[in-house]
Design a protein that fits this description.
Elements lengths: L11 E5 L5 E6 L4 E5 L3 E4 L3 E7 L10 H13 L5 E7 L5 E6 L4 E7 L6 E4 L4 E5 L3 E6 L3 H6 L5 E6 L3 E7 L2 E6 L4 E5 L3 E4 L4 E6 L3 H6 L5 E6 L2 E6 L3 H13 L12 H5 L4
Antiparallel strand pairs: 1-2, 2-7, 3-6, 3-10, 4-7, 5-6, 8-13, 9-12, 9-16, 10-13, 11-12, 14-19, 15-18, 16-19, 17-18
Length: about 270
């Protein structure tokens, strides 16, 4: 862990698991981690929980109304009004663990090394060191907001401490050179540094967008900067589960049983 002075709490961590991960955060006395409500998996005795408006960062407005407005912005990104703070109120080091909500990977972000700001998809934030601010980012371009997959509002994570995102499937981190362009399925963009230009591009060719199954638009990201990409957006996973659940399989009520699926190619 860097010894450079931080404004945010300086926490240590370890990520466990492969597809269904959790992150274990080690807190020194009086250190605090903040997380989305319901993310906590387990914690040592001596850690105190406190429900707070917003993220509890130093950037939050003072006063009840200011805090309410700040926390209310989080509702626009699909998050709860409240977060939970976990503080080591005992002696010696204590540990608290936060679990991923679905299959995928936890992405550790050292904001101090990343320029202090990350723009992320809605619902990506899992937990962070106290002092990290979790706000909102408005897409300025009309086309990106309408067709970019995440709408006009994304999460803006700021600070100089550790923050942890979660995304689906396998995660790829790409460093884009100045002027380098990458085209991505709109749902596969997890996050990027503010120096990256985010735009959308129409899929060319009538056969491609009618029968290609990839939608009408790509996300077009241009460097310089870092981009994080997920292989399995939760929306795609949910869509497949719904489709599977509503499909009438041959073995259901059939004397053929599982043999029915052999004949229709489902096995």
């Amino acid at each position: 862990m860097s010894q450079t002075m931080r404004n945010n709490h300086d926490i240590d961590y370890k990520i466990y698991g492969e597809e269904l991960q959790f992150v274990e955060i080690e807190l020194d006395p009086r250190e605090t981690a903040v997380a989305e409500s319901g993310a906590m998996m387990m914690m040592d005795d001596g850690i105190e929980m406190q429900t707070i408006f917003g993220d509890g960062s130093a950037q939050q407005p003072t006063g009840f109304f200011g805090k309410l407005v700040s926390a209310g912005k989080r509702v626009l990104t699909g998050e709860s009004l409240f977060m939970t703070a976990f503080t080591n109120a005992g002696q010696g080091k204590k540990k608290v663990s936060f679990a991923a909500p679905y299959t995928g990977k936890i992405i550790p972000l050292n904001l101090q090394e990343l320029g202090g700001t990350i723009i992320a998809q809605k619902d990506a934030f899992l937990c962070a060191a106290k002092g990290v601010s979790v706000g909102i980012h408005f897409q300025r371009k009309l086309g990106v907001g309408i067709f970019g997959g995440e709408g006009f509002i994304m999460e803006k994570i700021e600070g100089d401490g550790m923050a942890f995102l979660h995304a689906g499937g396998y995660i790829i981190e790409k460093q884009l050179a100045p002027g380098e362009i990458i085209k991505i399925d709109t749902g596969c963009v997890v996050g990027y540094t503010p120096s990256v230009q985010f735009d959308i591009e129409f899929v060319k060719g009538i056969k491609n967008f009618m029968f290609g199954g990839e939608g009408l638009f790509f996300a077009k990201l241009q460097g310089p900067g870092k981009v994080w990409i997920q292989s399995l957006p939760i929306s795609r996973l949910a869509g497949r589960i719904v489709a599977y659940g509503t499909y009438h399989r041959k073995e259901e009520g059939s004397v053929l049983g599982g043999l029915g699926n052999l004949f229709d190619g489902k096995e």
